[in-house]
Amino acid sequence: MASRPSGYEWVVRDKAVVISHHGAEASVLRGERAHQFVREVERGDPQLLMARIVGGTYKAPDERRTGPKPRPRGRR
Question: Compositional bias of type Basic residues: which residue ranges (predicted)?
Fold first, then answer.
């Protein structure tokens, strides 16, 4: 069973909603989506809502990003 999301915060800045996770900016909502977010956060669980919005597009600064490793170059 997955644990409950935590560490998300949101603030309104220059007509936009900025969502951060453990102090790092994770998403910015503007326009109608920002208004919709404010309405939804008042009705439900804010941590769960922010985690759903951020989704898989955000990685914390200390998370490793894996990918192809460079192959060592042998001597010839």
Answer: 67-76
What would the two tokens of residue 5 be?
């999301």
Q: How far apart are CA 30 and CA 12, in angstroms?
A: 10
On whether the pTM is more than 0.70, the answer is no
Tokens of 48: 């769960």
Q: Which residue has the tokens 């503007």?
A: 30
Rounded to whole angstroms, the Cα distance separating 48 from 41 reads 9
Strand partners, 30: 16
Q: How many angstroms separate the most distant Cα atoms in the chain?
A: 67
